[in-house]
Amino acid sequence: MNLRLLAIGMTTAVALAGCASTSPGYGSSGYGGGYNNAPANRYCADCGIVERIDVVSSGRSAPSATGAVLGGIVGAVAGRQISDRTGGSEGNKNVSTVAGAVAGAAAGNAIQNRTTGDTYNITVRMDDGRRVTISQRDLGGVRENTYVRIQNGRVVIR
Taking Cα atoms as reference points, which of 80, 114, 84 lies closest to residue 99? Predict the structure, then answer.
């Protein structure tokens, strides 16, 4: 019963978090209510246009499901051990084993993608004429000829 309530609570929290918007582009905050909400005449020292995106291969490879399989095995063993130590019934041990396997497979797959995935060198022509190249793992919707901002060493859509 507690597991069911936990699952319902987690699903509700994820659904509500997906509805929240912290983007300044929606609503009116006194800047005219446009999509960007920034005055057109304001200078942005960290902004520019993406000129080029180059894919840089990591050179590392692994069979496609290695991370998921190894993570699933480790997660299943950990879930079973936790249930054994907390005195769960046989049904709870099985549920814990399956939940651990699923969580471990997801984590293993994410770790494998992060370590073997490609990176992108994004060249941005800044508003002041400089050219800056930033290397990052994901594009996050950035394309060539997109007006972007550089924040915390990452290129993000403005």
Answer: 80
